[in-house]
Q: What sequence folds into this?
């Protein structure tokens, strides 16, 4: 039962990021609400309101049809324009910053809800029009339904004003960087809080049994409790060889087990791991480093030539690296054995280590920014700042020191001005 529940949760997370998810739900709610109003009108709800507030009700069917038809036509035009604005936003973000930003922008719930409000109102007005006869008298007209349709249309106009404001803010690079940083910061903090014991160790897995995933995709989520329950049941420990967030190849070794597993147990383990065809920062903080690095690299390309954006991106990378330094590199999961009551280590997930993460970021930045002395000075400032920050592992500071040395050597070979060389030497100490 828990496996089915986890699959439902994983399926919900996978479709929640689609741009049509919330609009579809709200459009369905608009249709159902229109059916509810048709039923209430048959019970005479408008007739009762007419006796109390006659000024709120339309007088004839032609007027009601004209009002709803005008609202419907305007809303369709408004929705087409809004979708065009979303496509323009996605196109501009992809060309100016990075295609990796698209999943995060598409999953913006504010845009989805606004488009959903438009669709819900359109569906409601369409089916309300079906219930109106032009020759109906005022006491048999669905007056309340017409009034609600007009109110929903006004609500859509207010939502459209907010939509224009929000989409103009969404395309600004500072807001994009801030959104990426916030998601990654929250994810990192959750991981750091889950690391309870710094002295955990895990046996070597060189001689363990190896198994393939049997499917491909980005390693998105894993049901830790279910995996621990399976390990406890068969009395084994397992090692997930691919870090979360990376792409898993169908025929690559994905699972190592201390004891041999039959096909049923292996399938049960794989069933508790979800794979996807896309990446989200909420599930993988490493993606935030990739996205921010790509924004900086794209900003320094000859076609864009925007060093100010690169400097902003390096500022956010500095803050993220400072948080990442508080996280361990082990990836060991510990749980309490339900039989003995003792805490035992059942499995380990491979992680992208601090050294690998730092190298991947700095390698790209060094390659594309080495000729700009201002950016090189900013990178040196970042590394010097990180060297002074507390770290979960002592060797993190040594990694940073090596990166300073590599950056300094590469920059000295790229600069032609002795003044620029002296400036970076001063920052490097």
A:
């Amino acid at each position: 039962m828990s496996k089915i529940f986890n699959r439902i949760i994983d399926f919900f997370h996978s479709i929640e990021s689609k741009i049509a998810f919330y609009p579809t739900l709200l459009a369905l709610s608009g249709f159902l609400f229109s059916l509810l109003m048709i039923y209430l009108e048959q019970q005479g709800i408008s007739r009762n309101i007419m006796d109390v507030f006659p000024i709120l009700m339309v007088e004839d069917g032609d007027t009601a049809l004209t009002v709803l038809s005008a609202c419907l036509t305007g809303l369709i035009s408004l929705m087409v324009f809004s979708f065009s604005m979303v496509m323009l936003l996605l196109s501009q973000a992809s060309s100016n910053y990075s295609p990796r930003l698209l999943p995060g922008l598409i999953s913006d719930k504010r845009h989805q809800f606004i488009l959903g409000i438009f669709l819900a109102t359109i569906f409601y007005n369409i089916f309300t029009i079906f219930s109106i006869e032009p020759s109906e008298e005022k006491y048999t007209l669905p007056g309340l339904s017409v009034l609600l349709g007009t109110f929903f249309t006004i609500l859509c106009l207010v939502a459209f004003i907010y939509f224009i404001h929000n989409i103009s803010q969404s395309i600004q690079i500072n807001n994009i960087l801030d959104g990426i940083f916030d998601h990654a910061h929250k994810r990192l903090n959750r991981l750091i809080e889950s690391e309870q014991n710094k002295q955990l160790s895990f046996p070597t897995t060189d001689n363990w049994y190896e198994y393939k995933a049997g499917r491909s995709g980005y390693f998105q989520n894993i049901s830790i409790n279910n995996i621990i329950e399976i390990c406890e049941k068969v009395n084994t420990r397992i090692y997930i060889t691919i870090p979360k967030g990376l792409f898993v190849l169908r025929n690559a070794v994905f699972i190592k087990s201390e004891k041999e597993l039959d096909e049923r147990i292996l399938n049960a383990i794989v069933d508790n791991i979800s794979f996807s065809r896309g990446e989200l920062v909420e599930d993988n903080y490493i993606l935030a480093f990739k996205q921010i690095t790509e924004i900086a690299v794209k900003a320094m390309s000859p076609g864009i030539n925007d060093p100010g954006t690169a400097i902003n991106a390096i500022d956010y990378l500095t803050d993220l690296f400072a948080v990442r330094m508080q996280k361990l590199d082990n990836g060991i999961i510990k749980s309490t054995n339900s039989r003995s009551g003792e805490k035992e280590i059942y499995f380990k997930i491979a992680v992208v280590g601090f050294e690998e993460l730092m190298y991947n970021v700095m390698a790209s930045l060094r390659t594309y920014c080495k000729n700009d002395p201002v950016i090189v000075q900013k990178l040196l400032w970042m590394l010097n700042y990180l060297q002074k920050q507390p770290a979960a592992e002592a060797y993190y500071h040594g990694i940073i020191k090596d990166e300073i040395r590599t950056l300094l050597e590469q920059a000295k070979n790229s600069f032609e001005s002795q003044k620029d060389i002296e400036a970076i030497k001063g920052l490097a100490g």
